[in-house]
Amino acid sequence: MKKKWIPALLAFGLLAASPIAIQPAEATSHTTAVQENKLPANLANLMKIAPEHQFTLRKGSKRIEVKLLQWTLNHYGLKTEVDGIFGNKTLANVRKYQAEKGLKADGIVGMYTWAALYAEHEKPAEPDGELPAKLRNLMDIAPEHQFILREGSKRIEVQLLQWTLNEYGLPTTVDGIFGPKTKQNVLKYQAAKGLKVDGVVGTYTWAALYAEYR
């Protein structure tokens, strides 16, 4: 008679134990999802396209690039659903982001907004770091023969300008694109140096920038 109870007891024991066995697996999976904070490869690959050649995004856009935009806004701290659809919430957050970055807050993601978004995934330049050799070599050219830089310029010389502004104490993303933030800092630099405050980097501004390294 006692033997008939053994299968029943075993079955009851398995049923009682099963919820406990499942819980750790679920908890582990949830923790992994929460801790995932790395830009997915399929979105990171989109940044191989230069900002000036990226698709212009606006309300109504439905593309994978919208997911990169939304993911970056989330990473920046503006809660946005990453669904690839440029809706009202995405529009509101793009405008907030543009306003905070000193960009035209029109809700349209063009070259300058893309450049700012790309920079969110780059390690910021250290103001106290050593000027890279490729930028220092540019100073072999006399200031009067340097390229004149202005908003919209996209050259390696812009990186030298931006790096130097950083070194001077005006935080500037070193991306080689002369956007509104770079112009704003050039204006501040020119004013501080007693130069013509026009946002154009010509001979006299270059001479002042070179002098930062002497």
Written account of the structure:
The longest helix is centred in the N-terminal third of the chain and has 34 residues, at 2-35. By secondary structure, this protein is mainly α. Helices cover 53% and strands 0% of the residues. The chain contains nine helices and no strands. The termini are far apart. 27% of the residues are buried.
Give a brief outline of the structure.
This protein has 214 residues and is mostly helical.
Helices, by number, come to 9
Structural class by helix and strand composition: mainly alpha
**Total strand count, please?**
0
SSE arrangement, N to C: HHHHHHHHH
Question: Overall 3D geometry?
Answer: elongated
- Compute the average pLDDT: 81
Oligomer: single chain
- Nearest-angstrom radius of gyration? 27 Å
Which terms would index this structure?
single chain; 214 residues; mainly alpha; 9 helices; elongated
Topology:
Elements: H1 2-35, H2 41-44, H3 64-76, H4 88-100, H5 111-119, H6 133-136, H7 156-168, H8 180-193, H9 203-211
